[in-house]
């Protein structure tokens, strides 16, 4: 299973984030929030200075492109649990 | 001359402060990544409410029964502090949960909408490529105009992908 992060951040911001955190997985930029809108995750005015951002969400997509597990948190402080995601990924066999 | 009995220590406002501080510190629980952490926002809220109740009770005691309880000034100061902490906690609760309902988002069993987005190096990446689908041609589109375009390479074996939509680096 390969993690892929998506936000409205520009590539330079993602580079800074990756160097700070050491993340090696792809971090993709959706600056106009077009993909975010296609996934119905737009959080209008949720970002700094009232900018539009994505609401947090995780989707486990199997190799054929079908969603097999989702997580939509109700509270930004409550994060997805790594072991829950791994367990969901194991189920895909 | 009437004897003034020694007044009781007014401990209610102090208990209120303790509970209010507990409400703040409960937020540290989020960093532990525990499985029950969905409950922490509610725990924090309940502690703040309990703190406010104690602080109000304490201030009321000090003012309505000054012969019995001490602490008009200290009680008032603590009460104000507790009120500030509770407002802060309440505000934090509301702001952290002010999320749009992901009503039309892809659900289990649905196809994940395709996309092509730039990675942090400016390379265009599609969902099909990430999934390693056989019919996706992984062309590398370089940032500079006079670099070579490499021919399509053998696709990687299909794999699952965890899409993590997040708010941003901030």
Description:
Chain A is an alpha+beta fold. Chain A has two domains: 1-55, no CATH class; 59-93, no CATH class. Helix content of chain A is 27%, strand content 25%. Chain A has helices at residues 11-21, 34-38, 82-90, and strands spanning 2-7, 27-29, 42-43, 53-54, 57-61, 67-71. In chain A, the strands form three sheets. Chain A has a two-stranded parallel ribbon. The longest helix of chain A is centred in the first third of the chain and has 11 residues, at 11-21. Chain B has 170 residues and is mainly α. Chain B folds into two domains: 12-96, no CATH class; 110-139 and 153-160, no CATH class. Chain B has a two-stranded antiparallel sheet with strand order 1-2. In chain B, strand 1 and strand 2 (124-126) form a beta hairpin. The radius of gyration of chain B is 29 Å and the shape is rod-shaped. The model of chain B has no long low-confidence stretch (mean pLDDT 86). The interface between A and B is large, with 67 and 53 residues.
């Amino acid at each position: 299973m390969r993690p892929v992060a998506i936000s409205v951040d520009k590539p330079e911001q993602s580079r800074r984030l990756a160097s700070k955190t050491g993340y090696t997985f792809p971090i993709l930029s959706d600056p106009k929030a077009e993909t975010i809108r296609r996934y119905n995750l737009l959080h209008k005015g949720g970002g700094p200075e009232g900018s539009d951002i994505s609401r947090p969400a995780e989707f486990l997509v199997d190799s054929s492109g079908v969603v097999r597990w989702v997580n939509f948190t109700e509270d930004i402080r409550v994060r997805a649990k790594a072991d829950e995601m791994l367990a969901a990924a194991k189920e895909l066999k | 001359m009437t004897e003034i009995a020694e007044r009781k220590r007014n401990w209610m406002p102090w208990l209120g402060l303790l509970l209010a501080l507990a409400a703040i510190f409960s937020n540290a629980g989020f960093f532990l990544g525990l499985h029950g952490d969905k409950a922490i926002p509610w725990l924090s809220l309940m502690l703040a409410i309990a703190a406010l109740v104690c602080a109000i009770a304490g201030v009321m005691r000090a003012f309505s029964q000054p012969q019995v309880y001490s602490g008009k000034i200290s009680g008032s100061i603590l009460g104000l502090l507790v009120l500030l902490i509770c407002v802060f906690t309440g505000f934090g609760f509301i702001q952290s949960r002010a999320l749009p309902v992901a009503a039309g988002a892809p659900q289990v069993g649905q196809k994940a909408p395709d996309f092509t987005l730039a990675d942090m190096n400016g390379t265009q990446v599609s969902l099909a490529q990430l999934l390693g689908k056989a019919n996706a041609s992984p062309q590398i589109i370089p940032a500079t105009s006079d670099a070579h375009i490499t021919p399509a390479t053998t696709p990687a074996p299909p794999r699952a992908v965890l899409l993590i939509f997040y708010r941003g680096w901030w």
